[in-house]
Amino acid sequence: MATLVARPVKADLTALTPGTLIGGKYKILTQIGRGGFGAVFRCQHIGTGQDVAVKVLALPGGENDVVFQRFFLEARSTAGLGHPNTLRVFDFGQDQTGACFLVMELLDGRTLADELRDRLARGEVFTEMEALAIGDAVLRSLAEAHEKGLIHRDIKPHNIFLHEVQGDDSTVKVLDFGIAHSAELAAQNALTQTGQVLGTPSYMSPEQAQGLPVDRRSDLYSVGVVLYELVTGTTPFAGNTPVSTLYQHVNAPPPPLRDRARVVLSDPFIAAIERAMAKLPEDRFPDSATMRQALMGKRGHVSGSQMVVRVSSSRIPQVTVDERTVAASMPQITVNGETVDARALQPKPGTRPPPTRAELEARLARNRALTLAAIGVIMVSLVVIALLYAHHRRLIDEPAASAPGSALPGATQTPDAPPSAEAMPRPARPEPQIQAVPEPTIPPPPTFGVRPAKGKNKRKGCDPFDPYCR
Asked: Which domains does the chain have, with CATH numbers?
């Protein structure tokens, strides 16, 4: 169990330089960012070598130990969140200098606010399918937190991170589950206090803007504002001052989403955003799961290979869409960086759907039966042909005794009937005479090694030892 020392001296963030150990085991490599709440450093665990992000909270010192009680409770609660769309907290504690720190998952990518800013500079916003993917991930993360009694209270594009994973698609991560609020509440010296206004004015729910108690429906209101901004490029309420913005959240109705949208939107998407941004909490969705179901509509489960948000600072993010989940009311979408007609992705009328597994098995069995039947017909045909051929040969080989005009044993021919060709005697063929072939005479073999009689060779150049050369 982590132990926190009450009433420490105020943390000196300037002393945290590269090479310094935080908590005795996290070596600072570089500083990632710095704000009013403290600073975030890229550190390396000296034992495992794992790179992590360490947030050091610059909590002011004082006589009141409520600051550390609130930090301790919220740090423990946040460390218990394990959803893939939530920033993981691995460790927390207090440094020897008195600074409270959190050890978190190190992310690589950019915030949703940075991505939206770059798109607006190019004159673009998020498509409905991209907004659905982001909203689905944020609501899944909030569902786990709400079940554990945590209310985020500061859902905005700056706290939604598009984490780039090598060899995989981007992952949406929700940041800062009440931890930054702990530092702000510490300055107020209270665990709970009526009348506090904490959060970002442009994304606050009406009850949060009035300093009233908030619940999970306040986070759903903020999600609706974020999705509103993704497809319009601006928040529904943007006053000149934070006070005027809060006043509009409480009293003014939001501008119609259909009129301010810069992309084509479907009716279920618009209806879900309008309900999430209702002024009264009881008019909103009761929980994250209900809002997710309303956003998805008849699209079913939209994630994974069906719809992926790809973020890149050098080119337009790509969106891959499953053609079966595209609504007919969305005439244009962006697929692989190109604008296409969504209706062209729908199956054409009259086209048959792909066969099911049962249909494929039935088709295979039918083809197997037809193949066996064809083989049987071929074998029967071969047997019949063999029988016919044997019968034909038997008819040819039998003597033609029963043919018309043939002489039967014991029968006599009438004197007037001419003799048949078979009854007439055939002349005897002369026997061929075989002439004797004289046997060939073989000359005696030559005798080698015997010197012939001396004499003058008749032919010049003859071998004197050759008996046939004389």
From this structure: 1-106 (3.30.200.20), 107-345 (1.10.510.10)
